[in-house]
């Protein structure tokens, strides 16, 4: 097998240089990096990772011990734990005990020899800390999950007593006379706490009889049959683990389908609707993320050990009774934009129809068509629900929408469900709520991690610009990086262009300009309401945009869907994109999956986009229209829509790590709305100008300067004058 010495000899460099290159260090010239990498490839050299670990004495490896990987809660936990650990530079080893104590003891010995940095364990051992700590694992490097040992140690889990109590309350509220509780082994603390709380709550009502059966992976089918063969008929079965619940469901439907029965189960969070059970949800993906985060914190600081109890989600109802109107109208007409969200709404609305009996008719129009219809809505009184762009709300709210307080005086009670900063931009005009946010989005900067992490490219950039290659924090840096990755200026670039550019309509072109302008200023207006286009900052912003012309493809993109398609094909290093179009980067045809990085746009003051839903003032079904809007904008529906490619305004969506793991940029989105401090309309007079009209004025200036019809300064001067002619205070 070739060695570092062999590579150094053949390449004509020192062994230290070879070592630095092979270990990913960029303190070597780009020419030597290329030479060493080529030589190592020719010799078939591979790094001995085991030898590296032995020299270091520890590793960037974590171990996870699970009861099994057949039950969805543990799959969810592990996937989220692994994703978070890997994002912090750690790899993860998985060990499966099948709840066999002897097997777990053997695994502890194996893990010790693997030199792991820390362990997260759902242990089946009766005296677990003894076995872990006697094997020389320092207490702060071991995190117990779900099953809490009797001794003081680092632990994270849910409130299982509340879980048992809430399940029992369901039985009592339904006036069941006979129920059964199926749990796992009561030596496990979570199972015992559920059992004890359930018993205590049920026994307060003597009219409800209940039986209890313990089971495990090997006996679950046999024990379920015993349940169904018992003498007393059951109204419901309550189950402590979703894995057991699936077995109960299968036996019930295959052999006892004539038995009328309700199944309740403790369950992981389901993003899409699932109707076999009444689910009491615990967020196991959040548990995985929090466990990884806590374990890494303990590894870094041994004094940070703690006991952490996460909130139970409980019974998440897709159809909260308060949203349903009786009697329900036959149909509701929805006016919306031709977008991915429209297709998702069409796919989800049959669920609403099935629950309420109200058909949802969705009329889809282009951006321009939608604006024309809304501008003359009195001629189109057929619509009940109106989708408005966020830039239209301040102008149209009083003209075409019902204030939602006039329909539901308690509408403000929904405000706590939404992300900070969302309602102010997407719902409120003149201190009244006119709409609820459905697809709020922000501009984000996407980049190719494989390019930005390349040792050779990082070194080349350092040599050329005397600064590290990293995602840009200013648009001057953005343009320099774009030039570096444009093959026309750097033949060594793996991609043709440094960045994408979206300039289709005047409104779209304005968005590209505003991304740059708001990196320099927080508002388009001064304190006296004067538009700030005739300023050095505005001219600098437009020049920064025009400079990108030579670092992007000759024909710019017309819409952000086109931008997402271009970036997904791997022809550009960076793209600025609204978050509600980012899911297109993961389509089956994408060539960059696994290599997508994301950060805030330079300036950390992102432009807002997306839409909001209101009730037409011409609707004769205002109550039902608002009911549908509440349903669409509720957390379960918004989370499901996000999984299908939309976005959500609900806080709880951003704790759903099935979504975060699928779309990592959502971590940025949740804080982006409060981060955005810019104003497109003057705040003292928010309704005196149609924002779309202002955006068209600015967009025309952008496109005129971009095509060299005029200078940046002259184009902005003309826009300033055009604005002065139409504005009326």
From TrEMBL:
Residue ranges of every copy of the HTH lacI-type domain listed in the record: 2-56
PROSITE patterns: HTH_CROC1 (PS50943), HTH_LACI_1 (PS00356), HTH_LACI_2 (PS50932)
InterPro entries: Cro/C1-type_HTH, HTH_LacI, Lambda_DNA-bd_dom_sf, Peripla_BP_I, SBP
Listed SUPFAM superfamilies: lambda repressor-like DNA-binding domains (SSF47413), Periplasmic binding protein-like I (SSF53822), Periplasmic binding protein-like II (SSF53850)
One GO MF term: transcription cis-regulatory region binding
CDD domains according to UniProt: HTH_LacI
Record-annotated HTH cro/C1-type domain positions: 3-38
Pfam families, per database record: LacI, SBP_bac_8
Domain of life: Bacteria
Transmembrane segments: none
Keyword annotations of the record: DNA-binding, Sugar transport, Transcription, Transcription regulation, Transport
Official protein name in the record: Multiple sugar transport system substrate-binding protein
Organism of provenance: Hydrogenoanaerobacterium saccharovorans
